[in-house]
Inverse folding.
């Protein structure tokens, strides 16, 4: 598989299944890699502390690679700051066990339009604390462009990168999230091409009331054939990680993951 064609499934796509079944299903439907969601009902902190060895063996036996350990952090709330740091440290230490060199992270709420200097300073403190540990364990920390969090726009994601003076810090670019914020994909690639360490691929639209609707990978704001050409031009070599959300993922998780895998494979096979 060519580097630019590495495909993974975000296990959040299979939250309708328990973790063991999600791992087996990921392999069964044809994915070569899994981004392991580090939250219940999958690889939450309690499970990570008690069953990391067993889960690592299960993933290996399924023939899967771990594209990333996927954390759901909240570094902007002083009430849980220390707890969040300790949690992140736990998963960074576990990364070698899973052969993972990437940790997907989230910054925390609120949306950037409502964020204060205190929110940004708290995130900056977390990043400063975690960089030496990331260097020690040979991992990169890729913060997701996430709706209703500090990195919900192109400008706010740039701000995160500018305050992190280390190539250990980059982005997990969720293109759909940025499209929901009104960003244009060529601008995203121009801004972040050297700092895109991971991607999340999903699709959908926002209704007039502001509600989110998630659809098949070929239905929604994102033109994936065009986006994949931009990523090739940018020489992106990380994973294309499919994230299935919405009613289909809840009611038909395996079928929905299979559907989007086939759509992505078709898009990747197109010329250009």
């Amino acid at each position: 598989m060519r580097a630019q064609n590495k495909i993974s499934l975000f296990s959040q796509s299979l939250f309708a299944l328990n973790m063991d079944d999600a791992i087996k299903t990921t392999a069964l439907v044809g994915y070569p890699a899994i981004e392991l969601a580090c939250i219940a009902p999958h690889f939450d902190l309690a499970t990570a502390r008690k069953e990391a060895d067993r889960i690592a063996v299960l993933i290996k036996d399924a023939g899967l690679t771990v594209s990333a350990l996927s954390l759901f952090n909240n570094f902007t709330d002083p009430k849980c700051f220390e707890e969040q740091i300790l949690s992140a440290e736990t998963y960074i230490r576990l990364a070698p066990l899973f052969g993972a060199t990437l940790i997907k992270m989230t910054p925390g709420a609120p949306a950037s339009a409502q964020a204060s200097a205190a929110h940004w300073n708290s995130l900056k403190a977390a990043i400063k604390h975690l960089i030496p540990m990331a260097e020690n364990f040979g991992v990169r920390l890729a913060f997701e462009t996430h709706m209703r969090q500090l990195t919900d726009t192109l400008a706010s994601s740039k701000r995160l990168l500018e305050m992190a003076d280390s190539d250990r810090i980059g982005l997990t670019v969720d293109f759909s999230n940025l499209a929901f914020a009104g960003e244009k994909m060529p601008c995203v690639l121009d801004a972040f091409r050297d700092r895109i360490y991971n991607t999340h691929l999903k699709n959908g639209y926002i209704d007039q009331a502001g509600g989110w609707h998630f659809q098949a990978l070929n239905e929604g704001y994102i033109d994936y054939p065009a986006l994949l050409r931009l990523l090739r031009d940018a020489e992106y070599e990380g994973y294309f990680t499919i994230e299935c959300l919405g009613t289909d993922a809840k009611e038909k998780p395996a079928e929905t993951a299979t559907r989007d895998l086939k759509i992505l494979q078709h898009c990747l096979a197109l010329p250009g």
